[in-house]
Design a protein that fits this description.
The protein is mostly beta strands. It has 2 helices and 25 strands.
Length: about 400
């Protein structure tokens, strides 16, 4: 059985402290038999009031632990935190409540290698429509990957499967399955997919693998403004898109993808852009090629950021937003697996270059980081990716 520790009162207290901008990191001792939150802080000095150039002190609170590869985490307007585990589990934590399994029909879930229950997103109109989107493997005569829409019960005890929004993303063993979903206020979804470790997929405009897709969330049809009005493909030439992030106050969308033995990338998405991955050399899957290869892919768009000659395994992205982040406000937070950190990138206003980069010290001992998810209240939810000892963490700047 998955052992969930602590959200309940501990999470409620942490969120209350965030809302009150409390500078205190310790509460009274919990009642006997009640697990207590684990909190640590970065070593940076607390910023002076109003000092937007100061590096914040960061508190890290354990929301849930004893998990098996939690992939994504979302927080609803009512404060409920929902996360999934790749093997096929949903769990909800309501404010002031205990971690509670959420029932859902996952009888056709395909789990293999890197694929299973993956990216999550709430509808921008969640309070009215109670809609959750999940990116997941779908079993059948020929396994595939797609996005499923669910209706969440009022008490968060169950998900009712409404429809498959889109499917047909290629999958073999489950390697390079992607799969991240980003819901937009205009009722569309951006979806990042993997190339399924097949050489021709990234450059094949008819394949949905190795792409970023843009669709209408209600119908699954191509979104207005797509390069080909009849296709959901928004960009192509990707290897394994693991993260998507919308920059607040702009129309910029960034993708994060994992490289081979080199060149993890952050890319600014441009409709119709080709990001230059073409591993079909020698009629196979040749991962020695460059992630962005302008010689074999004329017009390939350069990455905004690259890890260079060795990879760190970038796995997610979200923009920090809020004055409490001080000097980090507006930076792109990137979850890193192999490098075991949360990388922060200060990206130029036009989205074309990285001005500087740093990390969040308080997360340097949490192991592999899968997902970073910035919240409207200025906090950051994080999932780790170490195995059956994984956690969901709440990161609060102060």
């Amino acid at each position: 059985m998955t052992r969930l520790v602590l959200a309940g009162l501990a999470l409620s207290a942490a969120l209350t402290a965030t809302a009150c901008s409390s500078a205190e990191g310790a509460d009274a001792s919990p009642a006997a038999g009640t697990p207590s939150a684990t909190t640590s802080s970065s070593q940076a000095p607390a910023p002076d009031a109003g000092d937007s150039d100061a590096v914040p002190t960061v508190d890290v609170t354990t929301v849930a632990s004893g998990l098996d590869h939690p992939w994504d985490v979302v927080r609803a307007p009512d404060g409920t935190v929902l996360f999934d585990e790749r093997a096929g589990r949903f769990t909800a934590i309501r404010p002031g409540g205990e971690p509670t399994p959420v029932s859902a029909d996952l009888g056709d879930l395909f789990v293999g290698s890197e694929t299973g229950l993956m990216g999550l997103a709430l509808s921008p109109n969640f309070t009215q429509d109670r809609t959750l989107y999940s990116c997941q493997g779908i079993d059948g005569d020929s396994p595939t990957i797609g996005v499923v829409a669910w209706t969440v019960s009022d008490d968060w005890s169950s998900l009712t499967r409404t429809r498959t929004v889109i499917s047909g993303f290629p999958v073999t063993s489950g390697r390079h399955g992607g799969c991240r979903v980003l819901a937009q206020p205009d009722g569309t979804l951006f979806i990042g997919t993997g190339d399924s470790a097949q050489g021709t997929v990234p450059q094949d405009p008819k394949s949905l693998g190795g792409k970023v897709l843009h669709i209408d969330a209600a119908t699954g049809a191509p979104a207005p403004g797509n390069p080909d009005p009849a296709s959901p493909v928004y960009t192509l030439g990707h290897r394994n898109v693991q993260g998507l992030a919308a920059r607040p106050g702009s129309d910029q969308i960034f993708s994060v993808e994992q490289g081979t033995s080199r060149d993890d990338e952050v890319n600014l998405l441009v409709a119709g852009g080709n990001y230059g991955y073409r591993p079909d050399r020698s009629a196979g899957y040749d991962e020695s090629v460059a992630m962005t290869d302008p010689e074999r892919v004329p017009g390939a768009l350069d990455a905004v950021w690259s890890s260079g000659p060795s990879t760190i395994a970038t796995a997610s992205a979200s923009f920090l937003d809020g004055d409490a982040w001080g000097a980090w406000n507006g930076m792109l937070a990137v979850g890193v697996q192999k490098g075991q950190e949360v990388l922060l990138l200060d990206i130029s206003d036009d989205g074309s270059t990285v001005i500087s980069q740093t990390t969040i010290p308080a997360l340097s001992e949490q192991g592999r980081i899968r997902t970073v998810s910035a919240q409207p209240d200025g906090t950051l939810l994080v999932t780790t990716d170490n195995g059956d000892t994984d956690q969901v963490l709440l990161v609060t700047p102060r």
